[in-house]
Amino acid sequence: MSITDSRPSDQHLRDEWASWHAEREEDLRAPHGWLSLTALHWLDAEPRTFDGLPGTWRASGDGGVEVTAAEGAGLVVGGAPVTSTVRLEPVDGLPGVLVEVGPRTVEVVRRTDSYALRVRDPEATTLAEFVGVPAFPVDARWVVDGTFVAYSQPRRITVGAVVDGLQHFPTAVGVVRFAVDGSEHELVALQGKAEGLVLHFRDATSGESTYGGGRVLQVRGADDHGRVRIDFNRTLNLPCAFTASATCPLPPAENRLAVAVEAGERNPARPDLG
């Protein structure tokens, strides 16, 4: 595969971005998507009840979570009603196990060695009052060509999280080098889907016009000459920019750009914060 030298026209760039952005916002409107999160409850070994949820919930201490409810309580796991105690085994870093509670779902997640419940409600304020994601104007200046230099072997790295005490362990596969306005920059590239790369970074807009925990950009894999095209216009907010009930990773420490990347998504409205 190769990256051609042709550049999209400004109008073509804006048109493609508009279509892509519309799909992005439609995904965010999913009834049980990220905007539906209303609560994040951490579990310990003590069986606990939580407002609005039937049954008791506890971390079993041996790699699982136990949910206990009487018949008719309204909890459903895997299509079967919970009538006594059910054991769930979420995997660190992956989507959790879903428990249905009427129109809501409770996602049971493992993060590092901790367990939590994330309540997803299609009537959440963040979803009901969602009016779209603000973004910087699309600009061809932010479509840059870079070079991907792969590590000899992928590296499991440790990064922090927006929740104090948590850690995430993404796989770093190399570095991407590129120039903006004549200045050279480098970002650690994380493993993405298929042969793609993920650039998770902070820049001079972070904590100002964009989310302080950084943003993320999906990049197609390098061509046969190690070249990659980076379209910062498609930089995304992570779920933690929209809700306090997410447990997003922070960028690798090296991934802090001195330049203000005034491209991609900006700080969204937060109706849940009043």
Care to describe what's here?
This is DUF1684 domain-containing protein. It comes from Pseudonocardia yunnanensis. The protein has helices spanning 10-28, 125-128, and strands at 37-42, 48-50, 53-59, 65-68, 75-77, 80-81, 85-88, 97-101, 104-111, 114-120, 143-156, 159-160, 167-168, 171-180, 183-191, 197-201, 215-219, 227-231, 236-237. The chain is mainly beta and 274 residues long. It has 2 domains: 10-29 and 131-273, no CATH class; 34-128, Tumour Suppressor Smad4, CATH 2.60.200. A 7-stranded antiparallel beta sheet has the order 18-11-14-15-16-17-19, with no helix packed on it. The radius of gyration is 21 Å and the shape is globular.
What's the topology here?
Elements: H1 10-28, E1 37-42, E2 48-50, E3 53-59, E4 65-68, E5 75-77, E6 80-81, E7 85-88, E8 97-101, E9 104-111, E10 114-120, H2 125-128, E11 143-156, E12 159-160, E13 167-168, E14 171-180, E15 183-191, E16 197-201, E17 215-219, E18 227-231, E19 236-237
Antiparallel strand pairs: 1-10, 2-3, 3-4, 4-7, 5-6, 5-8, 8-9, 9-10, 11-14, 11-18, 12-13, 14-15, 15-16, 16-17, 17-19
